[in-house]
Amino acid sequence: MDNTFLTQITNGTVEDVETGRDGSFVLVSYSDCPNCGRERDTIRLNVGNNTVIMDENRGSIPLRDLRRGMTVNAAFSNATTRSIPPQAAAYVIQVVNRPRSEEVTVGRIVNVDRRGRSFMTVSDANPASTIRFNLADDAQILNAMGRPMNFSNLVPGLRVRVRHANFMTMSIPPQTTAFEVRVIR
Length: 185
Description:
Shape: elongated
Helix content: under 10%
Radius of gyration: 22 Å
Strand order of the largest sheet: 1-2-3-6-5
CATH class of the largest domain: Mainly Beta
Distance between the termini: 61 Å
């Protein structure tokens, strides 16, 4: 492929996505030399009707699916403005990696399912706040001192801080994936 009119970014970070009357753009920061200590450069990629936006599996996705923090590869025009940041017409934007979105919940363990590697918590003694947490394969379980502990040491009555996915099922109780469980006093 002739790259005379094309510039590429590998592993850039989406800083902003905007759609408005004046057009749509994706602000991307990147580094030509990731380990040399230089600051990252930024470019505003103008998205048009012919811009191809793809997910990690090369499937087409709409611009509204791009989010701040995503890692992307991009191909865009060599013709850039002299503005700060420079602007260029985007040809292809492909998501390479998505940041893991998380939330934190504090509660008291009320039930532990050893077979299913899950447990339920209640916050503020309110039964309506019950959540079932399914442990991720790489989930960390930490004691009050921050040291690793076994899942078998999680028992009803312990107060825990759970770092978990920001989505929950619509079931009763709602369920989500736990990434880290820390016993607190």
